[in-house]
Fold:
Amino acid sequence: MLKQILSKFPRKSLKADATDLNLNSNNSANSSSNGTLHVHSGGLVSGKSNVAKRTSSVVFPTSVVSGIEPLLAFKDVPSSEKMNLFVSKLNLCCMTFDFSDPSKNTSEKDVKRRTLIELVDFVASGPSTKFPEPAIFAMCRMCSINLFRVFPPNYRSNTAGSENDDDEPIFDPAWSHLQIVYDLLLKFIVSSSLEAKVAKKYIDHSFILKLLDLFDSEDPRERDCLKTILHRIYGKFMVHRPFIRKSMSNIFYRFVFDTDRHNGVAELLEIFGSVISGFALPLKEEHKIFLCKALIPLHKPKSLGAYFQQLSYCVTQFIEKEPKLASTVVRGLLKYWPITNSQKEVMFLGELEEILEATNMFEFQKVMIPLFWRIGCCINSYHFQVAERALFLWNNDQILNLIGHNRQVILPIIFPALEKNTKGHWNQSVLNLTLNVSKMFHEMDDALFQACQMQFQENQVNLTSLAEQRKATWERLENAARLQPVVGNVAVLVTPNAAPVPC
Structure:
């Protein structure tokens, strides 16, 4: 029965493509006496093997397996042959199938799935010996063949940048195999039998870049697997850490300044959040540049909501590491402030509260004037959620303490916005919150509050006077224009429509 199933596999040679993986056949081990392992392009050969061997290309291509049956169970071979069998099974799993038709190659798919599960169990059990280079090569090759693929254009149509958040993600029909391959790769990387100094030649920059490309998958299950795997690679292969950080930065740059579409931004930021917590102090200039050039501009895209939680965590991690960066972050938020997007404004105000909680007095004083000018505009917003979120800042004890120590500067900025709300905001909840904030300032410094109130009244009188003068001037101009005859293409004076100046 197994012969009949395996005879359906193509006889095409599965010889490793060293060019695609940046691997050289020079890394193969040479044969020696006393039963050491022999390597020939795709498999391992034992010098003294007592295992039943089958080399018929009808059952399995001889270019892939040199003299060992891949369908044998690991428990049926001696310890000296298990690595041979491991490589044979990996080569067997290099066969890929079309999953768009569930009725096609069902028997072969089932054989491959069972083989993958055997490999997962073998790696998870912890081999008694270290993985040799041929085994690492075979694993990377099998993962490359099964996982690395280019997503078609229509596959990327429903991305994080899509305006319709109700679109359901597209799930890969081959997930039943892909999931096991990802699980195998994860267990292989974290295995104590894998030496990083040996594996780094195969899990190299090219391999990592192709893994990062897969983060644009529409399938959230795949992105979650990739997130765990890349985090483990970052932890185990210290030599690759700068390259991984740089490559992730490049993805963010393309997303913000070019494509505005990527499915895996949230997962990449989640990885970076755990990476930031391990940064040594003082922070390197490279890390500060990443904050300014990548993380802060990530507040710009319309799809901020898809990754806002992870982005906010990364930013606050930077400030907790180095409080001097707080003023830089606040200026960045003010630069990208979403004036016409109320949902994003609510997010910005929430992140701003977290930042101010970790901000010291010196950094706060650097940005308090432009910051509270913007908060004043939010207080006057006709969108009640924006106004409410801005007024909720006064419920935070840390922020209230910062405001209290700098009330001489802040209250004159914020007072006109409070008075405007008090006299005419349509939402009762916003009105009540405004009255509470005014009461806080009144109790905090009654003299200053009265001075601001008098100044506000004087400004209102002046503004009324200026408005009347402007109206009278326009009336005189209109009367003068009315007396002049219209000749040819002479412009006609039209009364302008008064329009409020936006914040």
Q: What stands out?
A: Residues 49 and 81 are 7 Å apart (CA to CA).
